[in-house]
Design brief:
Helix content is 31%, strand content 23%. With 384 residues, the protein is of the alpha/beta class. The protein has 2 domains: 152 residues, VC0802-like, CATH 3.30.2130; 183 residues, Vaccinia Virus protein VP39 (Rossmann fold, 3-Layer(aba) Sandwich). Helix 4 links the parallel strand 5 and strand 6. Helix 2 packs parallel to helix 7. The longest helix is centred in the first third of the chain and has 20 residues. It is elongated and about 70 Å long.
Amino acid sequence: MPRFARYFATCPRGLEPVLAAELAAVGAADVAPTGGGARFAGDTAVCYRANLESRVATRVLLQLAHAPYRGEQDVYDTARAVPWREWFDVRSSIRVDINATRSPLKSLDFATLRIKDAVCDRFRDETGARPDVDTREPDVRIAGFLDATHFTLYLDASGEPLYKRAYRGRTGEAPIRENLAAGIIALTGWDGAAPFLDPMCGSGTFLVEAARIALDIAPGSAREFAFQRWHDFDAPLWSRLRDAARARERARTARPIFGADLYGDALGTARESLDAAGLAEVVSLKQANLLELPPPAPAGVMIANPPYGVRIGEDETLAALYPRIGDALKQRYAGWNCFFFTADLRLARLIGLKAARRTPLFNGALECRLFEYRMVSGSMRPPP
């Protein structure tokens, strides 16, 4: 790896400012958030730390080439010029992915094929052999991006997506990925010490991420990364960074983090997730209905991902639920900042509360909103 290189980190859309702050915190330079991620620069340690410590990044990509193009041959020539043997061996399997914005090329599939051909042709010319292609579990992932005029080529430093935290547990219906959950928690401003409540916890993703934040557990401290298979992997540096992150972890004792769900099977799934993550002693779980659940503390942060559409199946039932949630919050949750993450935009109209903030986010391709409600004693409505 060059001592100082340029990178692009991807993340769920809407979390780019959170990602940029994380990258700056690990020492990245020239951080520039953009749609779906952030560009940045840094040395080897920055690359390693971004993978190890970012809670919201999906992948960290090392930039290998950036050049103008007009057709597929230009794409091929740019990829062919990269000294691939400096990074990995011909025995490594590869996968090529490509994304584009306003590209004039007619077929992205053909452009992907041309990148693969360029890599294989360079290896064949230099070694007499070609790397295998493995689209499911490749040793090396190569990423291309095309805008209207320029082609950028990357080597994936992460491997498996960074939202895979290396703990296992069943997932409930309509789960959100760990990095999206961590980003939502960051957007609430929760400090890791104040009481935290997820009253519709489902598979427990918010609870696991909140516990890991409270204990300062680096999200990548127990998993492997693609950069560990690169020829220039600096094992002593990586060990120092990982050991330092692990040394910062706080004791896994009970914290004011609370989860509840109406359904016992969902609560069981959350318990399994917490057990798998080694956090069962940190979080308190309770089977309860949000409409009847008393607050676990006088003040704190609540995050809920209420069921919508697919889960409920009855729009009328859901429409009737929102006003009841608003009434429950007004009656019991004065002093709390309550956040609802949902793709059902009717919530803001039906809950009967005035949103202090509405943040657009995406759960995959699904457009969502994070609504914030600051609960105070008495009516939320201004006097006549």
